Amino acid sequence: MSLFERVSAMEEYEPWSREQSPSGRDRKMSFNPVGSWVPEAAQEEPVGAFEVPKTRRIFQVFFAVIYCLFAAGIVFGYAAIKPVLIKEEVYRGYCTKEELERGVRVCFEQEIRLNFMFTLAAVSTNVVALPVGTVLDRYGPRVCGIIGSIFVAVGCLFFAFAWQLPFDGYVPGYLFLALGGPFIFISSFQLSNTFPQYSGLILALLTGAFDTSSAIFLFYRLIYTASGGTFWPKKFFLAYLVVPAFIIIVQLFVMPYNSYKTVGELVTQAEEDTSFDDHASDSQINNPAEVQRLREARRVHRESIVSEITELLGSPDANEQTKNEEKKKNVSGVWGALHGRTAAQQIKSPWFILITLFTVIQMTRINYFVATIRPQYEYLLGDYQSAVEINNFFDFALPFGGVISVPFIGLILDNTSTPFCLALLVAIATIIGVLGVIPQTWAAYANVCLFVIYRPLYYTTVSDYAAKVFGFATFGKVYGLIICLAGLFNFSQSALDAMTHKLFNNNPIPVNVILLGLALLVGITLVGFVWKKSNTIHRENIEEEAEGARETLMPGATQNGVNGYGATDSH
User: Fold this and answer.
1) CA distance linking residue 83 with residue 169, whole number of Å
2) Distance (Å, rounded) from C-alpha 200 to C-alpha 317?
């Protein structure tokens, strides 16, 4: 799920915060973990959408959706490609003689190494968001996209020739595929500013493309099966090189070199004072008529720009968008909780600690389930074929469930409070945990259906929480650290695999119960804390509004013979 999905192009409008931070119009949200303000890091100013032909902008959005669909999150289709790798006997050489004699489908070392390949990729996808933000802010989306396509190409080559290499090429191959995704995906977010009135739709399309990209390995597995195994991984990954080649071509000839201006930057440009019609060089011209002609030309040019910005936004000051965003902020109940604080102060707060613990546990549960769905249900149902059918259903449901849920997630987050959204996350996660230990087919399918809806809701809610609570000035540092820590803790998945196979004799129930208990404990604590703080913020807002109303009345008011300064009016 997109980091930006709940952070709209209207992020610049922060009319109120609990501790005033610098003007929202002077900045945009950044993923740069080493700098707070984008303009200081960027080498060139962003470009206004009105300066680029409409047709070109349409093609930019179209091509971005296409290449995100084919490259942004393909590594999360691991559950679909894992059976292919097992059939191709990847890591089969690590099986013991006893395991081979027993004819086990997947031996212990083979399972651990395959799952580690996915674990490392999942961790890297989260951790790499930090350098991606820095590259994007300093060098622009084109450079970022090209770097991503190169990583994808390298990953394809490693995977295609892994069986010939003198070292393990599968792990670095899958790693590079994972590294390329964020560079390609995150650099596309700024395209929501190509058409500010439709920024939400554009972000939804990009997010949907990311979720659907996990189906690439599903379609490959279907082709592999239909071909009887002749279209083996080497052929697929060599053919897949056309994707990074396409991305490079599009980046060089279609996509923008610099990011597009945000709504706040466009509004600021539209509100420039008319004094800019005058220029210092005018004093050097002796002909008054020539000076007047130049000033008139500047005025016409400025009015033309304002007209084009108005057409983009719907109004020169984007009133409608501002009102909508203000309504969403009021509904959230936590907006501005830590705005204006330094990143260090925010990181030390319970707001950060609790959401980080919750994210660590939930991300571990999600990736553990993706990596082990087939062996889990093979044990729970006691039937390999039933486990295969559930795995196949999951492979279809994962990408399409994410796409279908996107608009509903937006409605939930826009129209309900943050404490409610967190409580919903905890409730669904608990139900998933319970269903995951019931050895029944109906429970397995219900679990998968809930999981594919929960996954995008979880990722989106966490980013939404970070934006509302911590603010945009520190978003890159704070949210990046949350995701980075959660990713690093995903290395514990290898230990969970070992526990399941060795300590619990392939029984996944103990590990799932442990994770369920931890998630429930931390989740209840988080919801309780946020709910209490939300009530406090709401009460303080009412008190501030009442105080503001009194201050507005007192200075010039004269009521019942008493003027605004408390003196009795003698007349």
Assistant:
1) 18
2) 18
Residue type, 18: R
Encode 300-311: b = buried (16+ Cβ within 10 Å), e = exposed. eebeebbebbbe
CA distances from 413 to 2, 6, 114, 559, 566 (A): 14, 8, 36, 45, 48
DSSP state of 262: P
pTM above 0.90, yes or no: no
Residue ranges of alpha helices (H) inside 30-169 are 38-41, 54-71, 78-87, 97-102, 108-127, 129-160
Task: Report the 10 Å Cβ neighbour count for 363.
Answer: 25
349, exposed or middle or buried, with CB in 10 Å at 0-12, 13-18, 19+?
A: middle
* pLDDT tens digits, one per residue of 212-239: 898 999 999 999 999 998 999 999 999 9
- Per DSSP, the residues of 526-539 read HHHHHHHHHHHHHH
Measured distance CA(467)–CA(486) in Å, rounded: 18
Q: Which residue has the tokens 């309504």?
A: 327
Phi, psi (deg, nearest 5) at residue 230? -75, -30
Structure tokens at 153: 């190409």
Instruction: Give alpha helix (H) positions in 499-508.
Output: none
17-52 pLDDT, tens digit per residue, is: 344 433 333 445 454 544 443 444 444 566 666 677
| Domain layout of the chain by residue ranges | 43-261, 263-277+288-314, 329-544
Residue 105: CB atoms within 10 Å: 13
Does this chain's domain 43-261 share its CATH topology with 329-544?
A: yes
What's the rounded mean pLDDT across residues 119-131? 85
d(CA 305, CA 370): 50
Query: Domain 329-544 falls in which CATH fold?
Result: Growth Hormone; Chain: A; (1.20.1250)
Question: What pLDDT, in 10s, does the model give residues 366-386?
Answer: 989 988 999 999 999 999 899
Q: If you classify domain 43-261 with CATH, what class do you get? A: mainly alpha
Do the Cβ atoms of 511 and 380 come closer than 8 Å? no
